[in-house]
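2024-03-11 09:14:02 INFO worker-7 job=invfold-0412 stage=load source=structure_tokens
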């Protein structure tokens, strides 16, 4: 049996501050009814001033290490869209905050698909023998790039972090990452974009407009692409794993919108109940979304050892991906 990356620990955290739909409706032209019916979101969490992505990442990482029963790893991969600074990467700060020593630590940027890209990168390090144990974190202070007055985005996004420990093992181990699919299409880069703050707008000499540091999203087009790509990517990993779609116990999709999750389940001929949903309480937390969902599902006892799980995501870039695994017997704390 080949060397494989096996999920052996999980943890997550969300900031304390709750933002309800009614709080948003008090500020902009929207309503609790509209947000619930179009997205499934009831509330989301927001970081307070002074809390950065690395603070959330350290807490989620600490919990994942505890769940795995380990104090050290050989590498740290952080998926984020909202690094503490444009330079340097945030992962070394997280490794330092966790007291992990001078291990390799780097960021992966694939927006809402970032965690799956980071998992695949970590699994590559393990397969090559470069690392025996890797901490993979998805963390976002996403509300820091959201225009608080933009009703197209403010109701959707929230903050949080999730992390997993991947350990070298065998393909036959429960928790082994079994198949991967990743993709990207830069022709769709404009669907989700923060116009200013990078080299493009800086070097062109264009003065940023008042909201150019905030994310803009073409919601309807994102919706259609998300359903199609997440469905196709899920089908690809199911085929590679040799699983019949109907045998899947849990579809843990990127928590963008409950309608997207149900549409993907529907396309895969899975009953809607097998699509795990926690977007109602945390909103779309981008790169943190999948590990947060997994940890919520595990702590609620909804994921049982041996369950067949498909992870899938779509995000800015455009990027997408999917991974299959059988849920391991681990401590969700
Ligand atoms: N409150 C009230 N009305 C709103 C609104 C809000 N917050 N946002 C938009 N509307 C209005 C629109 O102006 C439009 O009005 P019109 O028909 O008079 O023009 C109407 O609601 C429908 O807008 P539309 O954009 O077509 O709604 P939708 O059903 O596509 O839902 C999203 C919008 C953003 C919720 C949905 O497209 C979505 O979830 N997209 C994916 C977003 C995502 O998850 N992105 C992250 C990366 S995966």
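2024-03-11 09:14:09 INFO worker-7 stage=emit residues=333
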């Amino acid at each position: 049996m080949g060397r494989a990356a096996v999920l052996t620990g999980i943890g997550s955290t969300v900031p304390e501050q709750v933002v309800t739909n009614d709080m948003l409706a008090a500020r902009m032209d929207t309503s609790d009814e509209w947000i619930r019916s179009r997205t499934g979101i009831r509330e989301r969490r927001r970081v307070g001033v002074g809390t950065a992505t690395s603070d959330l990442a350290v807490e989620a990482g600490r919990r994942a290490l505890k769940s795995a029963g380990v104090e050290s790893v050989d590498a740290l991969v952080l998926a984020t869209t909202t690094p503490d600074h444009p330079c340097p990467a945030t992962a070394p700060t997280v490794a330092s905050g966790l007291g992990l020593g001078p291990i390799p630590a780097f960021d992966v940027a694939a927006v809402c698909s970032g965690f799956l890209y980071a998992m695949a990168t970590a699994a590559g390090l393990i397969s090559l023998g470069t690392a025996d144990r890797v901490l993979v974190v998805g963390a976002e202070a996403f509300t820091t790039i959201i225009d608080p007055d933009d009703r197209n985005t403010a109701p959707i996004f929230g903050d949080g972090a999730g992390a997993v420990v991947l350990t070298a093992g065998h393909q036959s181990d429960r928790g082994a990452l079994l198949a991967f699919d990743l993709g990207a299409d830069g022709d769709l880069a404009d669907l989700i974009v923060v116009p200013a703050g990078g080299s493009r707008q800086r070097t062109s000499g264009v003065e940023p407009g008042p909201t150019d540091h905030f994310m803009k999203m073409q919601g309807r087009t994102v919706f259609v692409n998300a359903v199609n790509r997440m469905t196709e990517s899920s089908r690809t990993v199911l085929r590679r794993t040799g699983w019949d779609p109907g045998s899947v116990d849990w579809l843990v999709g990127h928590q963008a919108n409950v309608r997207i999750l149900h549409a993907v389940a529907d396309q895969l001929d899975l009953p809607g109940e097998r699509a795990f949903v926690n977007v109602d309480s945390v909103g779309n937390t981008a790169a943190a979304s999948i590990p947060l969902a997994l940890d919520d599902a595990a702590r609620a006892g909804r994921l049982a050892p041996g369950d067949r799980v498909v992870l899938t995501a779509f995000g800015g870039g455009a990027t997408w991906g999917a991974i299959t695994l059988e849920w391991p017997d681990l401590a969700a704390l």
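2024-03-11 09:14:09 INFO worker-7 stage=report msg="The longest strand covers residues 3-13."
2024-03-11 09:14:10 INFO worker-7 job finished
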